[in-house]
Amino acid sequence: MPARTTVLVVRFFAFAIVGLLVLGCRRGGEPTEVQQLPAPDPSAAPKARATPYHVEQDREFPKDWSARREGWPCGYLSYREGFLRYHAEGGCDAVFAERIPTLGHMIEALRDAYGEGFALETFTMEVAQLDHFQKRLTLAAATSPKWDNKRGKAKGQERFQWGKSHALVVELVNESGALEELQTLFERYAVTVELQSLEKLFIGQVDELPFGPWLIDQGVSKRAKLPYDAMFWFALEPNEPPQ
After folding, report:
1. Could you read off the pLDDT of 56-106 as tens digits, one per residue?
2. Nearest C-alpha neighbor of 105 from the set 52, 49, 180, 50
3. Is 150 exposed, middle or buried, given 0-12, 13-18 or 19+ CB atoms closer than 10 A?
């Protein structure tokens, strides 16, 4: 090979090697940008919603459920196949209207835990701890021409025929407006509340009742004998769809 050609070939390879070395140095010297992902925020992680309402299914009788609110002194609800009962407890100063929001949340908790098949057909409770029910019931009886205030029973009722007094109390409650609060409690479930029956009806003389002074202020005789307590059974009838 001629000397000039050899020199040209050598120069070509030399420049090529130098170019590769320079390019390699540049690539190796330049820092590689790595996108740093932000550290996960523990507070942003999804959390289970804390709730003071607790629902339990009875282990021995799995058809029986109950709902409570932690720290609430006014009682709890029990549920079994469409039958809902309010168990009022002592030590609660709240009137029934003030209990409705908590009771409503209890019903929702029962519905969510029970799942498919949850229905509301019957509601029951004792009247003794619900002062507004007692006051309305006694006042309705005291002012009704069908109630005998002196004898403490429905007029025309013979001895041991308490069915007539029971039927009259049912009528008086349904007509007295005492169910307005209960209707508010169940309105979201599209049912109408109506007292269907009762048991354990108690009759008391006005001046012996805790709210006797209130009745006397309403013009009721202190000697009047009136119904003031019972176990109420309410029917929850589905509302008819609009025509």
Report:
1. 999 999 999 999 999 999 999 999 999 999 998 877 888 888 999 999 999
2. 52
3. exposed
Instruction: Yes or no: say if 218 and 136 are a contact pair by the CB < 8 Å rule.
Output: no
Contact at 8 Å (CB) between 132 and 181?
Answer: yes
Phi, psi of 56 (to 5 degrees): -130, 140
Task: Burial-class residue 214 by CB neighbours within 10 Å (0-12, 13-18, 19+).
Answer: middle
Q: Is 217 exposed, middle or buried (0-12, 13-18, 19+ CB in 10 A)?
A: exposed
What count of Cα atoms within 13 Å lies in the side-chain half-sphere of residue 81? 3
User: Which H or E element spans position 176?
Assistant: helix 162-176
Whether the Cβ atoms of residue 32 and residue 19 lie closer than 8 Å to each other? no
What sign results for the dihedral spanned by CA atoms 180, 185, 190, 195? negative
Region 3-17: mean pLDDT is 48
Query: Are the beta carbons of 228 and 134 closer than 8 angstroms?
Result: yes
Tell me the per-residue pLDDT of 32-42, one tens digit each, with 9 for 90 and over: 454 454 554 55
Could you count the other beta carbons within 10 Å of the beta carbon of residue 194? 15
Element (H, E) at 207: none
| Among candidate residues 169, 97, 79, 93, the one with its CA nearest the CA of residue 129 | 93
Task: Mark out the alpha helices in 70-127 (DSSP H runs).
Answer: 96-114
pLDDT value at residue 110? 96
Answer positive or negative: Cα dihedral of 194, 200, 201, 202: negative
